[in-house]
Amino acid sequence: MSETIQGQIALAGISIGRIMKVGQSLDGYMAEYSSGSADEEMEKLNNAIDVLSSEIDDSVEAMRNAGQEEQADIMEAHSFLLMDPMFADLAADKTKEMSNAPAAVLAAADEAAELLAGMDDEYMRERAQDVKDIGKRLARCILGVKAPEIGDDPVVLCGHEVEPSAVANIPDGKIAGMIMGQGSTTCHAVIIAKSRDIVTVVGIGDSTESIPDQARVLLDGNKGLIIIDPSPEELAAYEEKIAEEKAAKLRYEALRDLPAETTDGIEIQLAANIGLPEDAEAAVKYGNRGVGLFRSEFLFMGRKEMPSEEEQFEQYKRAIQACQGELCVIRTMDIGGDKPLAYLNIPKEDNPFLGYRAVRISLERPELFLPQLKAVLRAGVFGKAAIMVPMVTCVDEAKAVRSMVDRARAELDAENKEYSRAVQLGIMVETPAAAVMAPVLAKYVDFFSIGTNDLVQYTLAVDRINPQVSKLYDHFNPAVLQLIQRTIKSGADNGKWVGMCGEMASDPYAAVILMAMGISELSMSAPSIPKVKEKIRAVSIKEAEKHLAQVMQMETGAEIREYLRAAL
Ligand code: PEP
Ligand code: MG
Question: Which of the residues 188, 328, 475, 547 is marked catalytic?
Fold first, then answer.
C-alpha cells in the first residue's frame, strides 16, 4: 500500500524516482576508524583538502561549461569556504588537538556552522549548511566513504537537510526530485534545485526518516505531496498529468522568443522578479523582457554592514546589462516587515508590517538611501534603469523621494561621477492609501508598479504570512480589483505606465483581466512567464474586455475565480 506525506511546495511539477537518502550519519565509519599520530592525521586532512578542492574545481568547470552558472557560483563559494581561515584553521587546530582528522573536520564544521547559525541574519544562518556540507565531504574523503551509486532510475534526494553538493553533483536526467525535512525555500540546495527545475517538496520534518532508501516515490510538487510506493492506479492517475506537464514544457519552450500579445496584436511586457543580478541572467531562458522588480534588499542581507555605493553599483550594473536593453526596475531596499536587518538596529516591533519599514526607513536614513540612489543612477549608464520605491502611502513621501534623487544627482555632479539622467522614478502601489491617492501620486512619478502581495494584505486586513487566515487572502477580492483598476486608470489618465510585480501577476487568469484594465507590464518569477504568455496569446483584447466587464460586476472573489476558470 502506498503512503502519502504532505509537505510544502518549494518547486512545482510532478516526477517519479527512487529515493536516495543523503546526509546520513557517519557514526558507523567513525567507530571503525583507526587514527594515527597528530602528524599523520594532519597529512590526511591536507590530502583531503587537496582532493576536495580539485573535485570542486572540476565540478565548477563542468557546471559552467553546461551553462549552470548559478549552481557553479554556489559550489565555487564552497571552494572559498574550504580555504577560509574560519574553517580551515579551526580544522587544523582541532586535528592537532584530537589526533583524529575525520572527527576534527566534523567538529570544526559544527563549530563554524553554529557560529553562522547564531547570527540574526537568515542568509548567514543558511550558510551554516554549506560549512556542514564541506565538513562531511572532507570526513567522507578521509574515511574512504564512497558516494552511493546511481542506478538506471532517476533519484529523489531525501534528507532532513540536503547538502548543496549532493544536488549539484548529480547530472540532469539522473535527478527527479528532492525532499527535505526542514522547511527553508531559500537554502542553497533549493536554490540549485530551482535553477535546474528539480521538483522539490520541503518541510516534512522527521517524516524523512520513515521514507525507506531506494523506495519508489511519486512527487507531486504542485500540491506538496510525496506518495511512497505508489499503486498502479495512482501512477495511472498521474501519468496523464505528467504527460500534460511534459507537453506544456515543450509548448513553453517554443513560446520563449514569441511576444506576449493578444490574438489582435496588443502586446504586454512580461518581466522577471529577481533577488540577485544572476537571477536576471537566469531569467533569459524563460523569455523575459527585462526586470520589473529587483528586490535590492537581498544585497543588504547576509552581511555585517550595508554594501557600499561601489558594491551596489557593480550589482545593479550586472542586472541592468543582463536585461539587454529592456528596462531594469530596481526597488530601493524594502527592509523591515518580514525582512529585518540586524545591523540597522531597528527595535523589535509588535506589528512590523505596519511599522518602521521600506521608504519610511530610507527617508529617515540618508546615509543608507543616498548611496543606493547614486549607485542606481550610475549603473543606469549601462542600459535602461528605473528606481522604484516601496510602501509609499502619501504624496509627501513621493515628493521627498524625488528630492532625495535630486540630492543624489547633485552629489554625483559634485563628485564628477558619470550617471544617467534617463533613470525613471516610480513607486510601488501596495497600500490602499496609495491606490486611493493614485490620481494625485501619478503627477509625481514616472510609473506605478502594483505590489499585490502587500496590497491584498493591507486591503483585506489579512496577514500575508499567517496560514490561519490565508483562505481570506484573495487577489480576486472585488475590493482589491477596484483598487487595482483605479491605479491603472490613474496612470493612464496622467500618461504614466502601470505594471504589477506582486504574485497576482503570475496568475494567467488575472493577467487577462489586468490587460483589459490597461496594464502594460507584468513582472513575476521567471518560470511563470511562459504560462502567462500562453494565456495572453490565446485571447483577444475584445474578449478580455468582455470578461473584465463581467468580473467587475461580481460580488465575491470565489465567483470571479469560477467565472474566469470556466470562461478561459
Ligand atoms: C508586493 O508587495 O507585492 C511586492 C512585490 O513586494 P514584496 O513581496 O517584496 O513585499
Ligand atoms: Mg511589498
Answer: 188
Q: What is the mean pLDDT of residues 138-166?
A: 88
Q: Is the CB of 334 under 6 A from ligand 1?
A: yes
For ligand 1, say whether the CB of 451 is within 6 Å of any of its atoms. Answer: yes
Average pLDDT of every residue of the chain: 91
pLDDT in tens, 216-272: 999 999 888 999 999 999 999 898 888 988 898 899 999 999 999 999 999 999 999
User: Quick check: is 188 catalytic?
Assistant: yes
pLDDT in tens, 112-128: 888 887 775 656 666 78
**Residue 557 pLDDT exceeds 90:** yes
Cell numbers placing 199: 521538483
Distance 391 CA to ligand 2 centre (A): 7
Sort residue 355 into left (φ over 0), alpha (ψ -120 to 50) or beta: beta
The CATH homologous superfamily for domain 3-22+148-230 is Phosphohistidine domain (3.50.30.10)
Q: Within 10 Å of residue 464's Cβ, how many Cβ atoms?
A: 19
Could you tell me if 294 and 384 are in contact, meaning their C-beta atoms sit under 8 angstroms apart? no
Read off the pLDDT of each residue in 330-359 and give the average, rounded to a whole number.
86
Tell which wins on pLDDT, 83 or 320: 320
Any atom of ligand 1 within 6 Å of the Cβ of 430: yes
Residue intervals of the chain classified under CATH 3.20.20.60 are 262-567
Distance 449 CA to ligand 1 centre (A): 10
Q: Ligand 2 centroid to 147 CA: how many Å? A: 43
**What's the 73 CA to ligand 2 centre distance in angstroms?**
28
Continuous segment of H or E residues that includes residue 524: strand 521-524
Does the C-beta of 524 come closer than 6 Å to ligand 1? no
In the chain, which residues fall in CATH 3.50.30.10? 3-22+148-230
What percent of the chain has pLDDT above 70? 97
Substitution site in 428, 448, 455, 465 for ligand 1 pocket (most atoms within 8 Å of beta carbon): 428
Return d(Cα 446, Cα 498) in angstroms, integer. 9
pLDDT for 467 equals: 66
Question: Quick check: CB of 520 below 6 Å from ligand 1?
Answer: no
Alpha carbon distances (Å) from 70 to 276, 277, 283, 446: 11, 11, 11, 33
Distance (angstroms) between ligand 2 centre and the Cα of 334 equals 8
What pLDDT is recorded for position 122?
Answer: 59
* Distance (Å) of CA 154 to CA 18, 24, 223, 456, 482: 6, 20, 21, 41, 48
Element (H, E) at 201: strand 199-202
At residue 132, the pLDDT reads 87
Domain 262-567 class in CATH: alpha beta
pTM > 0.85: yes or no: no
**Range 412-425 average pLDDT:** 98
Please indicate whether residue 475, judged by its CB atom, sits closer than 6 Å to ligand 1: no
Residues of the chain with CATH 1.10.274.10: 27-143
Which ligand has the shortest distance to the CA of 501? 1
Q: Which ligand is nearest to the CA of 502?
A: 1
- Taking CA atoms only, the protein residue closest to ligand 1 atom 5 is 502
Q: Which residue(s) pair with 449 in the sheet?
A: 428, 499
Fold that domain 27-143 belongs to in CATH: Enzyme I; Chain A, domain 2 (1.10.274)
